[in-house]
Structures are given as C-alpha cells and as structure tokens.
Design brief:
By secondary structure, the protein is an alpha/beta fold. The chain is 35% helix and 26% strand.
C-alpha cells in the first residue's frame, strides 16, 4: 500500500484540500466555499476528496492544516502538523517553482506577499484590515455590474481606456464605481479599471516597502482573473507566473509539511461523520480572563486553546 498525505487550507471564504503521494504529485483535490461554517466545509471537503481517492492503492499516513481555522480543523482531523499560511504557501510554491523570489497571494478576504531567498521565506506582509482589492471585493463589484467574476479577464481584454477607480477602501471604491457608471464609462473599461485597481492597491499597501524580485508567482483565487494578472505584469514590468494549482498552494504546502515531518498519525475520512461541537469558555481564574475555545468530538473534549497561563489549561485538567 502506497503512502499518501493530506493538506487542508481553511479560510474565511474558501476551503481547499489536496492529497499527495510520496512524490508530491496531487492525486486528489477540492475547492469549495467555507460559508461561515469551517467544520461543515471540511465535512464536505473530505467527502469530495474521498470520492477521488483510491483507497485500494493508497493510505493516508499524515495530515496538515493551515489557514485561519487551522487549529480548529487540526483538532477535528487529528492533524500531524498545524502551520501558518506563510510557511505553507512558501513550501507549496517553492516545491513547484524552486527559483521563485516573490509570491503574491490574494484570497477571498486577505492578501499577502512572501519574499523568498534560496527557497526559504525571508520576509512577508499581510493585509487583513480591509477587503478592498480581494476576491470578496471583486465578487461584490461583479454582482453590481451584472457579470460573473470569472468573466472579468476576458471582458477586461476588450478595454481601450481602463477607468481609473480608487480602490484603497471598499466604501470609497464602490462609491467611485457607481459614479463612473453614472458618467457613462463602458462596462469593459470599468472592469479593466477594477483589475488595475486591485493590483495597484496591493502594490501600494500589502507590498509597500518590499523589493519585488523576479521570478514572481501570483496565487490565490484572484490569480484566476487574467485581467488582474495582466495588470500586475504591466505594473511590475516582468512576467507573472500563475500555476494551474495556485489556488491550492496552502493546502499543498500543508500536505508536504506533514510528509516532511516524518511522523505518521492516524487519519480517517470517517471523521466527517462525527459530531463536533465548539464552545467558548471564560476562564475567570485570574485577571487575564481568557476566552478559551473548547472542541469536543462525540461529546469528548479533544482540544482547547486560548489560555495564557496554566490555570486555564482545560484540556490538561480533563485528561488527568
């Protein structure tokens, strides 16, 4: 039986998962919306992955999680490793593009830039304060314009004079967009302007002060928008690579990290059928008044976190 490794990237907007073999080939993958329910999203994700997985040829021996809900989902699946997004994205990307120097990533509600030297992430920056210039921002504007966000790239190509749009703030961008529509700007010029505004906002905020060196790899859900890819290339003056699995890089990196850990832990797709309950407990045993997150599986506490001293270590007390 061949060994396989699973990685899950759970974000506020989307949930991604991959299963790789010992040669780092992706043998199963899934991408779906989180819909405000990370546990439910992972149930659906595991169901999709199980349908693609050949259990007669492979067995999953290690797992990794990353993303905003990595600790919660790590507890849920009994993850071998739980890593932050910067590490997971860097590992995943350098595995496919070993010469990469700059990683641009724009997701549903946040963005990040990772600078790489000799295959190692040496600097990074993130923007999570405002959704302007993210996938959620583009989706809302697409709805306003009556088009699918997936069509933005092809429509933007038809533009001769992209409309300047202020995109440093979601509220101002929407106000400016409405104003430009009322002024009679064509839909293709407005969409091209939105694509350029996303790239400009990213470079002026997330990447501010960072030295962007080629080769540049662009990933995340927005990397599928060819209009934004072209805008980045024009602003930077260098080619911008987009991998077909760029939207899965976090999960891919988590799977690789679980494999490189050299530790094997039990994993079962049946976890999707178990009952998970998350609740918050106020400790109150000291002035910290920590808010502790407790996760139970089938009525049994399996993990807790959030305590800043031993008095709030609920899991240790329960497991004594």
């Amino acid at each position: 039986m061949k060994k396989a490794y699973i990685g899950i990237d759970i974000g506020s907007i989307s949930t991604k998962g991959v299963i790789i073999d010992g040669e780092r080939n992706i043998i199963a993958s899934a991408y779906l919306w989180t819909e405000g329910d990370p546990v439910g999203a992972v149930r659906r994700l595991l169901s999709e992955l199980k349908n693609q997985f050949d259990a007669d040829e492979y067995t999953v021996v290690a797992s990794g999680t990353t993303g905003s809900a990595r600790r919660l989902i790590g507890a849920m699946i009994g993850a071998t490793i739980v890593k932050n997004e910067i590490t997971a994205h860097a590992v995943g990307t350098t595995s496919i593009h070993p010469d990469v120097r700059t990683i641009l990533e724009i997701g549903g509600q946040d963005s990040k830039i990772i600078l790489v030297e000799n295959g190692i992430a040496v600097d990074y920056a993130m923007n999570t304060l405002c959704a302007a210039g993210t996938g959620a921002f583009l989706s809302s504007q697409a709805h306003r314009l009556g088009v699918e966000v997936e069509e933005f790239g092809e429509i933007a190509k038809k533009s001769k004079h992209p409309t300047p749009i202020a995109a440093r703030c979601t509220v101002f961008a929407e106000s400016d967009l409405v104003h430009k529509i009322q002024m009679g700007h064509s839909r293709e010029d407005i969409i091209a302007g939105l694509c350029r505004a996303v790239a400009s906002n990213y470079l002026n905020n997330v990447a501010k002060g960072k030295k962007i060196v080629s080769p540049v790899v662009f990933q995340g859900g927005v990397s599928k928008n060819s209009g934004v890819v072209r805008a980045f290339s024009e602003y930077l003056g260098v080619p911008v690579r987009v991998d077909e699995n760029g939207h899965l890089m976090g999960a891919f990196g988590a799977a690789i990290l679980s494999m490189e850990s050299k530790r094997e832990t039990p994993f079962s797709f049946d976890v999707a059928d178990m009952d998970f309950v998350t609740r918050e407990v106020n400790c109150g045993k000291c002035s910290n008044n920590c808010e502790i997150i407790c996760v139970s599986r089938n009525g049994t506490l399996i993990d807790s976190w959030g305590n800043r001293c031993e008095r709030g270590d609920i899991r240790s007390r329960v497991n004594k």
